[in-house]
Design a protein that fits this description.
This is ABC transporter permease. The protein is an all-alpha fold and 265 residues long. The protein has 11 helices and no strands. 28% of the residues are buried.
Length: 265
């Protein structure tokens, strides 16, 4: 316990110092557009965390906003993971497919996601489907490109050894190619999760009545600056939690890779 507390103190002291400086600075400046952290925390509590203890202090609005936003985020992200890994592996293993699709993929990847919002709204109408497709299309590229690069750079000696032992294509894919490409695939998944949080908010800024993004735009229209900053803060906290959880999962699933690298060195 002492070690955990010491580790937390070593990591969080700068955050605490920044929050204290923010509180002192904003109260001294009395700038309307930059409320102090105490007011932001008060707005957070009032909007989302003043519910009953049996529901982890979540209000009805918190349940509605968080379930809507996180449902869209993870649906879009998981869809991009499946499509990105499958297509990336196929492109990485086939030079013909890579040469055929690379110009199209590079073109689509270069299109800024916000410019496609009117198109997605026109095709899918306002609602959950449009938001999920917006997230999936916008965040699939890190997964796809990292998967293709990881598969393409698998050690040729490993592949030749697998052929010598008579492994089928499917067995080579499952036991050799995917494990070797896993570090790059996971790097793409981690980057895409951060992008998914951004695209979740972007997709909710237009025509949405529930979700964190809708709360942000509503607070802006009402000129409720503490509530607006509360939405920004909760997005930062969610990003921090998602990254920490993914890092722990990655370390657990790729522990064998770290061990192999230590042995190699």
């Amino acid at each position: 316990m002492t070690r955990l507390l010491r580790g937390a103190a070593e990591r969080l002291w700068l955050v605490v110092l920044a929050v204290v400086a923010w509180e002192i600075g904003t109260r001294a400046a009395q700038e309307e557009y930059f409320p102090p952290p105490s007011k932001i925390v008060s707005a957070l509590h009032e909007m989302w965390f003043s519910g009953p203890a049996s529901r982890l202090f979540l209000t009805d609005k918190a349940v509605d906003d968080f379930s809507t936003s996180l449902g869209h985020l993870f649906a879009g992200w998981l869809l991009s993971c499946v499509v990105g890994v499958a297509l990336g592996v196929a492109i990485g293993r086939s030079r013909t497919l890579n040469d055929l699709l690379d110009p199209l993929l590079q073109f689509l990847r270069a299109v800024p996601p916000p410019t496609l919002l009117p198109f997605f709204i026109m095709v899918f109408q306002l609602g959950a489907t449009m938001q999920i497709i917006t997230i999936a299309f916008s965040v699939v590229w890190p997964v796809l490109l990292n998967s293709a690069d990881g598969v393409r750079t698998v050690d040729s000696l490993q592949l030749e050894t697998a052929r010598v032992f008579g492994l089928s294509r499917y067995r080579r894919l499952v036991t050799v190619i995917l494990p070797a490409a896993a570090p790059k695939i996971f790097a793409g998944l981690r980057v895409s999760l951060a992008f998914a949080l951004i695209l979740m908010v972007l997709s909710e800024l237009v025509g949405s009545t529930a979700g964190i993004g809708a709360q942000l735009i509503g607070a802006q229209r009402d000129f409720d600056l503490p509530a607006m900053w509360a939405g920004i803060v909760i997005l930062g906290v969610l990003g921090l939690l998602f990254n920490g959880a993914f890092v722990l999962l990655e370390r657990r699933l790729l522990a064998w890779h770290s061990g192999a690298r230590r042995l190699a060195n």
